[in-house]
């Protein structure tokens, strides 16, 4: 089994979506002053690698703390926008930018979540029908194409949360060694 980290590191001054809060990570306690180290974090709920709850773009829709934990992990596959068929019953992650032209197919499949470089219009449409979105992922090209992997992207349990940074992880079955099957 291989565990692949798909998360961007959260760092002081990292890039954010225009208009989002600046990310500040400051050391507040040090070993020398307090015998432990502690950082103060200031960031928006959609910083770095994050999950969007339906309430992010739709008033009155489900918030993070209203969604069961099962919504944030599951069997998944990387797909391309021009693939003739996408698998059903699993999360889908796009290998390239995906726009609104993908919505009708996704609405029919109803994956539990969709990730990758998604247009704002596609995100809004998916969240409107209760499909969670993951953005700010890195390293999707390291995942096998056409093969299931387990995805885990748990948010912080933010009361009435519209989104949260996540530690996004893919668990891929190990490829058999030469001569094994």
From TrEMBL:
Gene Ontology biological-process annotations: L-tryptophan catabolic process to kynurenine
InterPro entries according to UniProt: KFase/CYL, KFase_sf
GO molecular function, one term: arylformamidase activity
Name of the protein in question: Cyclase family protein
Protein species of origin: Paenibacillus thalictri
